[in-house]
């Protein structure tokens, strides 16, 4: 991976479009993904939202946050009064990683080493987008931006990332996994409150 990072840096893309071509042409670190899922949204967006990695549906469609977690995110943004189209949405890792169980492809979280491998791309991408605020969803994205393990439930809120004003919150897939209806509703309300608070900081 270190060698791969050095090789990518030598490619020094001069635009987001050029960076995206490099990402599209790259092999997944772990084989299996259909395609790289690129970031989406306007350059110069005030807020960039960074997720973990594309899921099953994102891998098929080639767009970030279109599956169940993405739909929850979209609904939460709407509830917080934030226009999804005005945001830049991307992921710490650009390829879906999974294990096959029968017909189902079960998501596997990226390792710290995999996050590090993809980090140069993410940082270069954010350098082109230049958001005023970077919002991380969940532990993987927070790790990508800080370089350390982050306990998102304890540390949620504003956080200075290296070179960026940041905001840490939970991942929507965590909200989908909460067992009780009541608990899920409360956690979703807290997520919406986080998005509102982040938006006020941008
Ligand atoms: N979860 C993520 O972190 N990113 C996506 O694009 C979809 C689901």
Automatic annotation (TrEMBL):
Domain spans labelled Uracil-DNA glycosylase-like: 38-196
Assigned protein family: Belongs to the uracil-DNA glycosylase (UDG) superfamily. Type 4 (UDGa) family.
The protein's name in its UniProt record: Type-4 uracil-DNA glycosylase
Organism: Azospirillum aestuarii
Whole sequence portion shown: 275 to 476 of 476
